[in-house]
Amino acid sequence: MASFSVPSPVPSPVEDAESLKKAFHGWGTDEKAVISVLAHRDAAHRQQIQQAYEDLYKENFIKRLESEISGDFERAVYRWIFSSVEREAIIAKSAFGKVINYRVIIETSCINSPNELLAVKQAYHARYKHSLEEDVASHTSGDFRKLLVGLVSTYRYDGDEVDARLAAVEAKTLHDVIKRKPLESEEAIRILTTRSKAQLKAIFNKYKDEHKISISKDLETEHPDEFASALRIVVRCISSPQRYFEKLLRVVLTKSNLDEDTLTRVIVTRAEKDLQVMKEMYEKRTNVSLEKAISNETSGHYKSFLLALVRN
Amino acid sequence: MASFSVPSPVPSPVEDAESLKKAFHGWGTDEKAVISVLAHRDAAHRQQIQQAYEDLYKENFIKRLESEISGDFERAVYRWIFSSVEREAIIAKSAFGKVINYRVIIETSCINSPNELLAVKQAYHARYKHSLEEDVASHTSGDFRKLLVGLVSTYRYDGDEVDARLAAVEAKTLHDVIKRKPLESEEAIRILTTRSKAQLKAIFNKYKDEHKISISKDLETEHPDEFASALRIVVRCISSPQRYFEKLLRVVLTKSNLDEDTLTRVIVTRAEKDLQVMKEMYEKRTNVSLEKAISNETSGHYKSFLLALVRN
Question: Which residues make up the binding site for Ca(2+) 3 (chains A, B) (predicted)?
Fold first, then answer.
């Protein structure tokens, strides 16, 4: 269920394109008008508006939009206007800065279904003329490379079938490698990058049943290093994307320096999917509504835009 | 161009199904009749015959066929009757014996295009209820695992664009790692498992230009071990599948113990694709026709079946 509201009846794409052209007109931009259109249309509508705009005004809609707005607001709108698949490809590409943002790569590869990930990789090929695998491999080395390249490459089986015997064997394998110092990465990477999500959930459950501690907690306790922290993100993204994102929102919204990129990413990628559920989880957990928390930490058009996506 | 002949006009699927039913009838099987139908129909026809047979006689065609014939002949027909994608999935699964047949896994992953490999992996999921990645990973370890899991997982970019500067850098990287003893596998695996085929061909060409020796030859000279031999198969499958298969046929057909599985695999997988080209290459190279060589080394219905696929 989408977390944002769409007016009923929704204006035609041509009407919306005209409103946006008017908002762009002259010196300065009417950002409120931009938000009132774009933050209240679903992906299909946004696509149609873009098409109608380009047919009517013979100019590239996205380039014009980028020239009209700026800063965090621009970056958020730029992510939002694309379809989910295109957006994920753009976000994955943005992970390759001076240092790779491995969290983004793990989210892309572990939260999407196998066929969604495939579609993202196809969009990545079309857009950047090379593969996501190449970019991940050439920005990493050692265990991080093995883990991240494995995660983005794999085409997991997507069925529900679970092999309980094998889950028990591999829960034990994971426990054994986690108890070694340093952690023995090879088998952990093999299991996490090749098994189906249903099988992995069975493994994680078996782990908790046997050892009275979740694998994520055990990793945290035994290994304070960054590689173990990446493994924990994998486990959490596969176990429960919603709990993962809800916690990420809590962390982002309570740090003294706001990480706008992460906040934007969670809101724009989930607004059309399950942000509504996370809002409820967030408020239950913190006694503050997500809307209120975002409102406290952000400002300007960026704030108005995020709130428009969160409020329904 | 197919290497086998299809009669014109081709009988209807119902006529063919009736001929096969007649061939199966009573004690013993008329193998000649089976060959005269199945070895002279393309994939679409074979599919239609199977359907017509099952509609007419309410029995599973493939099971019946398997019960009627045996040995190498059965195994060859069993591979042949499927579509190319299904067949590749079945062949990949057959690679996991007591020891993994890594050559088969390299062929599947490096000779198919990225989208063909994807289709094979989808057929593998549907047929075996788990992924090819899982099977490869759990049958291998160490460098072999990294290489083979990387090859089957990756979704390579399939465009023609080549980055010449990068090709030069990575040709040098490959040369450096090959000159180390033991060979430094990590960068070799990264390059071979992630770059596009067009880019890899540019890298191999650059390697030869710079060092006056092909990378395949250099690997052979510097490293007499099995891992280097696997890397050479990767290089050769990507550089030229036809030269690779033609040489494999030469090796198989001159060894004292015939490897029927490999011979069958090359003939049935290429008969509908490029076997005609390999036949010409083979005869040019050996002064013996492929038909004659197969005829000398095989016997019985197996021989008749292979010859029917090779002769046009």
Answer: 298
Contact flag A137-B190 (C-beta cutoff 8 Å): yes
How much is the pLDDT for A27?
A: 84
Q: What percentage of chain B carries pLDDT values higher than 90?
A: 96
Task: Tell whether domain B85-153 is in CATH 1.10.220.10.
Answer: yes
- CATH class of domain segment(s) B164-237: mainly alpha
Determine the Cα–Cα distance for residues B68 and B39; give it in Å rounded to an integer.
Answer: 16
Q: Check: CB of residue B200 under 8 Å from CB of residue B163.
A: no
Q: Collect all residues of chain A within an 8 Å Cβ-Cβ radius of residue B150.
A: 149, 153
Q: Distance, in angstroms, between B100 CA and closest chain A CA?
A: 17
Q: What is the domain partition of chain B in residue ranges?
A: 13-69, 85-153, 164-237, 242-310
CATH placement of domain A13-69: 1.10.220.10
Q: What is the rounded distance in angstroms from the CA atom of residue B293 to the CA atom of residue B309? A: 14
Q: Partners of A100 in the beta sheet?
A: A96
Residue of B nearest to A189 (CA): B137
Residue ranges of the alpha helices (H) in chain B?
13-24, 31-38, 43-57, 61-68, 71-80, 84-93, 102-111, 114-128, 132-138, 142-153, 164-179, 185-194, 197-211, 215-222, 226-239, 241-254, 260-270, 275-286, 290-297, 300-310
* Contact assignment for A196 to B153 by CB distance below 8 Å: no
Q: Do A196 and B150 touch (CB under 8 A)?
A: no
What distance in Å separates the CA atoms of residue A282 and residue A264, rounded to the nearest whole number?
16
* A195 contacts on B by Cβ (under 8 Å): 134
**Residues from chain B contacting residue A118 (CB–CB below 8 Å):** 118, 155
Report how far apart, in Å, the C-alpha atoms of A216 and of each of A221, A224, A232, B215 are: 9, 12, 5, 44
- Thinking of the domain A84-153, which architecture would CATH place it in? Orthogonal Bundle (1.10)
Class of the domain covering B242-310: mainly alpha
Given a cut of 90, is residue A3 above it in pLDDT? no
Whether a cis peptide bond, with omega within 30° of 0, leads into B13 is: no
Scanning every residue of chain A, which has its alpha carbon at the shortest distance from the alpha carbon of B131? Answer: A157
Q: Residue B96's beta-bridge partner residues?
A: B100
| Chain B CA closest to residue A128 | B157
- Using the predicted structure, report yes or no on whether residue B26 has a pLDDT greater than 90: no
Q: pTM to 2 decimals?
A: 0.93
Superfamily holding A164-239: Annexin (1.10.220.10)
